[in-house]
Amino acid sequence: QVQVVESGGGLVQPGGSLRLSCAASGSIFSINAMGWYRQAPGKQRELVAAITIGGSTKYADSVKGRFTISRDNAKNTVYLQMNSLNPEDTAVYYCYADGVDSYRSYRSWGQGTQVTVSS
């Protein structure tokens, strides 16, 4: 299967920017899509952005125009560029990878990285 590891979280002031990274390892040839979810305290986990192996992207309405998901195939890494951050973006951000390996579909999750937007 595939393992994913996030990095890049931290504390940022409102209006600031952060870039999250998600590095994949293992059976990377089996990946169909990768993306990011987030979970704020007391709230359900929600999809933030996703990118397919073909390059198609989708975003949550709340982040459209502010966040950009991209990938570097040579590094097996997906990025989430987050601009114009506001306190409502505070959450633990989780990277995931979807794929099919040995005819079985899977979703691999990272351990999460904390993003805190506060003055």
Any key phrases for this structure?
119 residues, mainly beta, 11 strands, elongated
Distance between the termini: 40 Å
H/E order of the elements?
Answer: EEEEEEEEEEE
Helix content: under 10%
Q: What about the largest sheet?
A: 7 strands, mixed
CA radius of gyration is: 14 Å
Approximate shape: elongated
Task: Give your account of this protein's structure.
- The protein has 119 residues and is mostly beta strands.
- It is built from no helices and eleven strands.
- It has strands at 2-7, 10-12, 18-26, 31-39, 46-52, 57-59, 67-72, 77-82, 91-101, 104-109, 113-117.
- The strands form two sheets. Strands 2, 4, 5, 6, 9, 10 and 11 form a seven-stranded mixed β-sheet that branches. A four-stranded antiparallel β-sheet has the order 1-3-8-7, with no helix packed on it.
- It is elongated, with a radius of gyration of 14 Å.
- The relative contact order is 0.32.
- The mean pLDDT is 96.
Outline the fold blueprint.
Elements: E1 2-7, E2 10-12, E3 18-26, E4 31-39, E5 46-52, E6 57-59, E7 67-72, E8 77-82, E9 91-101, E10 104-109, E11 113-117
Short description:
With 119 residues, the protein is mostly beta strands.
